Amino acid sequence: MADDENVSFHEQPDTPEESAEHTEAPPAEPVEPAVAEEETPAAAFEASPKKWYIIHTYSGFENKVAESLKTRSEAFGFADKIGQVLIPTEEVVELRNGKKVTSKRLVYPGYVLVEMEMNDALWHEVKNTPRVTGFVGGGTVPVPLSADEVNSILYRQASSAERPRPKMTYEKNDSVRIVDGPFANFSGKVDEVNPERGTLRVMVTIFGRATPVELELLQVEKV
Predict the structure, then answer these.
(1) pLDDT in tens, 119-166
(2) Is the whole-model pTM more than 0.70?
(3) Which domains, ranges and CATH numbers included, belong to the chain?
(4) CA angle, residues 68, 70, 75, in degrees to nearest 5
């Protein structure tokens, strides 16, 4: 009997088309480009070499001092050390002949705000400017304003343009005369002031009795 023919069954490797599973790779998640964080005003304030300082001037010469600072900075070569020069103002309203009249007034009479990169030489140049009496803070090392203090001043100036403040201020027990409204020409005393609403309560004597009357600040004047 013939030996069984040794037949080896060599399995042929599957072709790539047959063996590889055609599974699509999941799409890569889009990578969002890195966005640089916006620099906050406070951060910018801290990063700037220039800081805000308050200088004291002769009252009524604030604008002259501001002009002199700019002129001297160019003449003496420190213009690059000086930034903004600010004289804070606000709009105020008053009643004249029954009409509201708006005007501007200084928020801090006798003071000028200057943005500068402080050093000893600049300190002397600013201090020697005509009609400047010195820096607020005293000594030879003036203290700069904080970011919050600067923002508060700028906000007050900007907000007054939208809503002018009454020119006159009042306190409790001030004697006033009513100049507008149904109680015009009556006199009384201020009992309460509400600055947020721009009103005050005045005690007016009507028919022999003290009667509280709520009025706008523009409806009264001091006597």
Answers:
(1) 999 999 999 999 999 998 766 678 999 999 999 999 988 888 887 888
(2) no
(3) 44-166 (3.30.70.940), 175-222 (2.30.30.30)
(4) 90
